[in-house]
Design goal:
mainly beta; Immunoglobulin-like; 3 domains; 4-stranded antiparallel β-sheet; rod-shaped
Length: 266
């Protein structure tokens, strides 16, 4: 069994950080040698030792436990150590609280003051569907959601994690109305699809279901302001209208006992 020198490697700095240079010093060896570092993310860096020194530039993703082996002479040198994350600080996820379904949204992930480039972000719906994206150099991801409801957003990078949520909502219903709405005259209300409709005037309500084309007909019995609320599959739409009444004024010629003119006023 080959002996291994555990204490013959000195790290400079003693607590290395990902994304920075790391020097290996072999005080008991004076010559040339080769070796490698196996990082926790399975990255491998080759090392060349000359005059007891070797240097490696660590990647930003090379955080966590790592092992170095240097083959110098008959006894290989080996050491296990920890590489600190590239940035120190908490991951922060920035996203709007809600977004329309099938609409692009930008999610930003930062660690300290810097973009968390290379972070993995996983999006999970209430039904268990999930997908992942990798953060770009600007710290952002542009994505969209095809399922309504709350989604969990979890970011992981540099040995730390953060999570938040976003609510994916359906677009509101659009309600269109007839023109020149008057009291006691039939009007058309169109939602565009089959929906439940509630019409209100003060404390009085009317409940309807539109036809297959999304239309219904309503006769407002009194002048005044009415509100309409339509719902279908969790989507809502609101609209209001004001009806007017027709005032008829007949002008009579009393000597002839016949009307001479009629004035209509809304």
């Amino acid at each position: 069994m080959t002996a291994v020198a555990e204490e013959g490697i000195v790290l400079v700095p003693p607590e290395p950080s990902a994304g920075n240079n790391l020097i290996f010093y072999l005080p008991d060896f004076n010559g040339t040698a080769n070796g490698y570092i196996l990082c926790g993310n399975n990255n491998v860096h080759l090392i060349e030792i000359s005059d007891s020194l070797g240097i490696v530039l660590l990647d930003k993703s090379d955080y966590g436990n790592a092992t170095v082996k240097i083959f110098a002479g008959d006894v290989p040198y080996s050491k296990t150590f920890f590489i600190k994350p590239f940035f120190e600080g908490d991951l922060v996820i920035e996203s709007p609280p809600s977004i329309l379904i099938d609409t692009d949204v930008t999610v930003t992930v930062m660690i300290g003051p810097e973009p968390a480039s290379g972070a993995t972000v996983t999006f999970t719906s209430l039904t268990g569907r999930s997908f992942s994206r990798v953060v770009g150099g600007e710290g952002t991801i542009v994505t969209s959601f095809d399922e309504k409801g709350a989604w969990t957003i979890k970011a992981e990078a540099y040995g730390t994690a953060a999570s938040t949520s976003i609510n994916v909502i359906l677009p509101p219903l659009t309600i269109t109305l007839s023109e020149d709405i008057e009291a006691n005259k039939e009007m058309e209300i169109s939602v565009g699809e089959s929906a439940d409709v509630i019409i209100r005037r003060n404390e009085i309500t009317w409940t309807y279901r539109t036809d297959a084309n999304g239309d219904l007909y309503f006769t407002p019995p009194w002048p005044g302001r009415y509100t309409i609320e339509a719902t279908v599959d969790g989507r809502k739409g609101e609209q209001s209208f004001v009806t007017i009444s027709e005032t008829r004024i007949d002008v009579y010629d009393y000597e002839k006992s016949i009307p001479t003119s009629t004035i209509k006023k809304g």
